[in-house]
Design goal:
heterodimer, A: 189 residues, mainly alpha, 79% helix, globular, B: 463 residues, 3 strands
Chain lengths: 189, 463
């Protein structure tokens, strides 16, 4: 991956994540999750066969559609302190990632581009899972950190079975998770 | 004949197909009970024939799927037989206790996935299969009046994180099969693996999802999940130890397992004693049981496989007893306070006894299945640091006090008289058989534990 395309990838990832975190509508969140899947597909094309990368893209977009079919009407109030915290989190994790992720290449034999983007998504997803109270946000964060893991793991292992299993897990998680979220929201309302 | 086809693909397909019959509850449940029973018995027959050398089997042990293979060796068959018989017990219980029509079929699919995870080569992928099984099981757990989902979300997050950590650790360790692993890599992979397994099994301090989940889901499927989940997790851990010499030789790994297990035993005992909610009390007892298994693995080379084998039966019986009795006594009540147990002995004597026997087994009370296993654990722990003994004894003591607390609540007399039913329901026969089995295991442990010990030693010869 040359420097320009890496810069574009990083920009798309950071902008998508930031928009996704500060948005107050489920549809906007899902659109940007779809964008993340698309950009990760372009990255994975460099280390995986096209067919396998397509499986990843289709599973991701299918998960987005499944969540959209059940949670499309969800909205929530975004509060300025929360937005500030989320933006700060993106900045903080971004700095940490750029500083330390390349050093992980000692353990994982892959290029620093994959390590940086994968680690960034993984940590952002994990922090969001830990700090969010809202079930929908937790669900979306789980998808973000799965995506981060897939980008980290893809150069290490290009197994069809692993890709198939993770894809099935994503779709089932989307179905089961969004049903739980909707049921939970109905009770709160 | 192909063993993975018989024990993994066929039951999964048959159970999915049996959903067509789900409106005819009796035939549907009967068919699934029969399938699991036959598979369990077949596994034992095949294993005994091959070990006796009396029959030459021509069955294939491997099944290829997407370039990877599912391998079932004849050594693993007794373990598979036990897992299917456990599932059979749970499916048979659905005749009387849990009316959900998808649960029996999903039980069989879950079991098939557990066995797939045991037999997949390379076995690193087993965590992905186990996680898939857990997600598939989640809708059944949600079959209750409780709509808050904090516990379920935490369960999902912890399991997912553990899958990723174990896969990464596995990748580093697998690299060691080609070139030697250096000290840094070993340290990192041990940390990743340790945290992954801890998240998977709900080891302290990641145990919080267990009581939280117990409070918000149906207890019956929760009991089934927590019966098979730790067993599969422990087997996965033992597979790691058996496969990677670097990990076996890593000095810090076994003491870490022993400490974590001992802390879980202590935490489970003390947690159970101080709870006001029966769901949380039972959940902490499950934590205690998982701690026993984890601690047992750490006693390498003293008694690791022996201890794990000795705890599998008591844990399975205890978890079944607690879950069934809880389901009958408490049901789907949103109020789960221990106060509702008052005088239940006079109202539901058999289920109250079953509830107590579950606790007695884990606490290692004499004449129950956990007694010989507790003696074995104490004898192994006494050869190590006294800190282990203090933790384990403390946990046992608090669990025994929990038993006393339950006994007092259940037998609290509030003007009720003991109700003897006019006719005996069939479910009572099942309960009596399980209680008797629990006691027989305590009285004649070598009859049941020895074959399992031999079988597990054959599966993991290097531990």
């Amino acid at each position: 991956m040359n420097d320009v395309s890496f810069l574009i990838m990083v920009s798309v990832t950071i902008l998508s994540i930031t928009t996704l975190l500060i948005s107050n509508s489920s549809q906007t969140v899902l659109i940007f999750l779809g964008v993340l899947y698309l950009s990760s597909f372009l990255m994975l094309l460099q280390v995986w066969p096209t067919g396998l990368a397509f499986v990843h893209l289709i599973a991701g977009l299918l998960s987005v559609l499944v969540i959209n079919s059940l949670c499309s009407q969800l909205t929530w109030q975004t509060e300025p302190p929360r937005i500030a915290m989320d933006v700060l989190m993106v900045v903080f994790v971004g700095v940490i990632t750029f500083a330390f992720a390349p050093q992980l290449s000692v353990y994982f034999s892959e290029s620093s581009e994959f390590l940086i983007i994968g680690f960034f998504l993984f940590v952002i997803g994990l922090l969001q899972v830990g700090t969010s109270q809202d079930a929908f946000r937790i669900l979306i964060s789980m998808f973000i950190f799965t995506l981060g893991f897939q980008i980290l793991y893809a150069p290490l292992e290009g197994s069809a079975l692993v890709t198939a299993l993770i894809s099935i897990i994503q779709v089932v998680l989307a179905l089961v998770g969004s049903r739980m979220v909707i049921r939970n929201k109905e009770e709160i309302l | 004949m192909n063993l993975p086809l018989v024990f993994i693909i066929l039951p999964a397909v048959l159970s999915a197909a049996s959903l067509v019959l789900r409106n005819r509850a009796l035939y549907y449940r009967l068919a699934l009970t029969f399938i699991t029973l036959v598979l369990g018995i077949t596994a034992f027959i095949l294993a005994s024939r091959t070990s006796n050398g009396g029959m030459i089997l021509s069955s294939n042990e491997s099944f290829t799927i997407l370039g990877r293979s599912l391998n079932i060796t004849y050594d693993v068959l007794p373990l598979i037989g036990i897992i299917y018989l456990v599932t059979c017990l749970w499916v048979a219980s659905t005749f009387f206790y849990f009316p959900n029509e998808i649960f029996p079929a999903l039980c069989v699919v879950y079991t098939a996935l557990i066995i797939a995870s045991l037999s997949i080569d390379p076995f690193l992928y087993s965590v992905l299969i186990l996680f898939l099984a857990n997600i598939l099981f989640l809708p059944i757990l949600s079959y209750s009046k409780f709509k808050h989902i904090k516990g379920r979300m935490r369960f999902l997050v912890f399991q997912m994180l553990s899958v990723f950590l174990i896969l990464l650790a596995g990748w580093i360790l697998a690299g060691g099969e080609i070139t030697p692993v250096n000290e840094n890599e070993l340290f990192l992979s041990s940390i990743l693996l340790g945290v992954g397994i801890a998240l998977w099994l709900g080891v302290f301090p990641f145990h919080t999802w267990i009581p939280l989940l117990a409070e918000e889901v149906s207890f019956f499927p929760f009991g089934f999940l927590l019966t098979l989940l730790p067993v599969s997790g422990i087997i996965m851990l033992m597979k790691f130890l058996n496969s990677f010499a670097w990990l076996r030789d890593y000095a810090a790994f076994y003491p870490a397992l022993q400490y974590l297990g001992a802390i879980m035993i202590f935490l489970g005992g003390i947690g159970a004693f101080f709870q006001k909610s029966i769901a949380r009390m039972s959940a902490y007892t499950f934590v205690f049981g998982i701690g026993l298994l984890l601690c047992s693995v750490g006693f390498v080379p003293l008694a690791s496989t022996d201890l794990v084998s000795a705890w599998i039966f008591p844990m399975i019986l205890a978890f079944w007893s607690i879950s069934i009795a809880y389901h009958d006594i408490v049901g789907y009540e949103k109020r789960q306070s221990i106060e509702i147990l008052k005088g239940k002995f006079y109202e539901k004597p058999l289920h109250s006894v079953l509830f107590l026997t579950g606790f007695f087994s884990l606490a290692g009370i004499p004449f129950f299945s956990g007694y010989p296993s507790t003696l074995l654990l104490f004898s192994a722990a006494s050869k190590l640091s006294p800190i282990f003994l203090i933790f384990i004894l403390g946990g046992e003591l608090f669990l025994i006090l929990t038993c006393v607390r339950l006994l007092l609540r259940l037998s609290f007399r509030s003007g009720q008289n003991l109700v003897i039913p006019d006719k005996i329901n069939i479910d009572r026969i099942l309960i009596v058989l399980v209680i008797l089995l629990n006691m027989v295991l305590g009285l004649f442990p070598s009859v049941f534990y020895k074959p399992l010990m031999t079988s597990i030693m054959k599966i993991f010869p290097l531990i």
